[in-house]
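Preliminary data (for renewal application), zinc ion complex.
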Amino acid sequence: MHPIPATALACALLFAGHAFAAEPALPQLKAYTVDESWLRPVEPRQIADHTWRIGTEGILALLVKTDAGAILIDGGMPQAADTLLAQMRELGVEPGDLELITHSQAHGDHVGPLAAVRRATGATLVSNAESAVLLAAGGSDDIHFGDEIVYPPAHADRIVHDGEAIELGGQRLTVHFMPGHTPGSMAWTWTDMRDGRPLRIAYVDSLSTPGYRLIDHPRIPRLVDDFRRSFDVVRALPCDLLLTPHAGAGRHDGDGAPLTCRAYADKSERALDAELAKQRGDDN
Ligand SMILES: [Zn+2]
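Predicted structure:
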């Protein structure tokens, strides 16, 4: 160790104090905190012969079980990985049985644990090109949120295109691109059986604009056009049963009954129009 003369050290400290005295302290890191219902695990619930709801009360994760293994759609918050693995085990799906993982959007409250689940299971992570960029960045540099909602980055193993299907053990899930809430937002549709009859399930991404600048956004100037096209996509989905990543979004405010895909798109379009009017007013 080299001794530093006391006077030199004093000078250095004095100088350092001088140079930075006028600068404010750097901000503390803030955790991404959410409603507690987003963190409260559910008992696995059967939706149809092959389709189960797992995850938490507020945020859906879906498991499609087949004789050839299982498919996980969405995972929820980053801290949900162990819960998901336990819920899958409860349904008889060991980590090695999970073949495919996919998702709705690449925000941290829906894909947060996917890197950990992929690592624990060896499953193939399926995404689309827009979402894969955000997944690889761990949610950073988000168009609307910047670095506010980051999560462990995940590597997409397979990229699907609009209208493409993934298949496992007789279950065939088709993807429908619906950019808006995120540029890579996706709906997934498949036909399962319930009470001996076919049930067309539509798992449809968020259509909300939480705090988004809608007009003249420098990074996504055609955002509203994207939303309008996506409302039409959602209206046209095969949809006996609508499910949404946020449990309440696809349900009636009053009785909590599931909305039709058309009603969900209509409701979301009214909300977008109201927000647009507000932002136009604010600009005047
Ligand atoms: Zn989101």
